[in-house]
Design goal:
Length: 289
């Protein structure tokens, strides 16, 4: 893979990488289209990374369909599909881990010990195997995106990290491979998360900046959805991912919730409003539901 990539880049062409775990959907294809817009050669990697699953059962049950993935990527005009074996990504005796402190310890971090170390490690390995000019990731996994940005900068990969807005179903549910595992009844409850996020975002646009109030709006929608339990709803600084007591433009409302066998995550970035507060206002105790 690296040999091919070096040939392409040696000819003065740009290589764009879209790392995935396969079982592709429209959200992945948006990442591919973003890569195609800026690359001469697009590489899509498919690797279900054991190191980022805390639950071995979750890893085993993760859906896989490499032939369907191949057909979708071919239809999108992707140049290369890179499907390494586990022993190629993690050579025998593999003992190194990439740990991004701080950013990996908040939001989903405590509930998924080791998950972001697994992500940072595999993305580092993929960057070294593919040596792309840039790589594309979705904003749905906002914390993952920040972890990867930090890792790429700290370790001087020379790979630009490009992000793409969350792709949603018509009812607002963020596209995710895990949605496939919801029953029909559970799927009907799933829009509550984005509904709550929109309510809070509208309230922010209307002048509400208290974290407690904004978080409360999202949490109430989630509590009202049958069978859904919030793991966290939090208003955080968009760069540090630390909770803030008052919203400012660029802050992120982030959610993780359990629905049946599935853990759903979503977020919105608060857009600027005329009533934005100053950083000095952010000195109270943050609310975190
Ligand atoms: O977002 C994903 O699909 C995975 O976490 C990634 C970035 C491909 C690493 O395994």
């Amino acid at each position: 893979m690296r040999e091919l990539s070096r040939q392409v880049r040696g000819a003065g062409l740009r290589v764009g990488l879209v790392p995935t775990m396969g079982f592709l959907h429209e959200g992945h294809l948006e990442l591919v289209r973003r890569a195609k817009a800026d690359a001469d050669v697009v590489v899509v990697s498919i690797f279900v990374n054991p190191a980022q699953f805390n639950d071995p059962g979750d890893f085993e049950n993760y859906p896989r369909d490499i032939s369907a993935d191949e057909a979708m990527l071919e239809a999108e005009g992707v140049d290369m599909m890179f499907v390494p074996e586990a022993e190629q990504v993690y050579p025998p005796g593999s003992a190194s881990r990439v740990i991004v402190s701080g950013l990996a310890d908040t939001l989903c971090g405590p509930g998924r010990p080791g998950h972001f170390d697994g992500v940072a490690t595999v993305v580092s390995a993929l960057f070294n195997m593919v040596e792309p000019d840039f790589a594309v990731f979705g904003e749905k996994d906002y914390q993952q995106l920040q972890v990867i940005r930090r890792m790429a900068a700290d370790l001087h990969f020379g790979v630009d990290v490009v992000s793409v807005a969350t792709c949603r179903e018509p009812d607002g549910v963020a596209m995710s491979t895990r949605n496939e595992r919801l029953s029909a009844a559970e799927r009907q409850q799933a829009p509550a998360i984005y509904r709550g996020l929109c309510l809070a975002s509208d309230a922010w646009q209307g002048g509400e900046d208290s974290s407690q109030a904004l978080v409360g709006l999202v949490a109430s929608e989630i509590e009202a959805a049958e069978g859904m339990t919030a793991e966290y709803v939090s208003l955080v600084d968009g760069a540090t991912l630390q909770p803030v007591p008052r919203a400012t433009a660029g802050c992120v409302l982030a959610v993780a919730a359990a629905l049946g066998p599935v853990r759903l995550i979503d977020n919105v970035v608060l857009q600027s409003t005329a009533s934005a507060v100053t950083a000095a206002d952010n000195e109270e105790t943050p609310a975190h539901a």
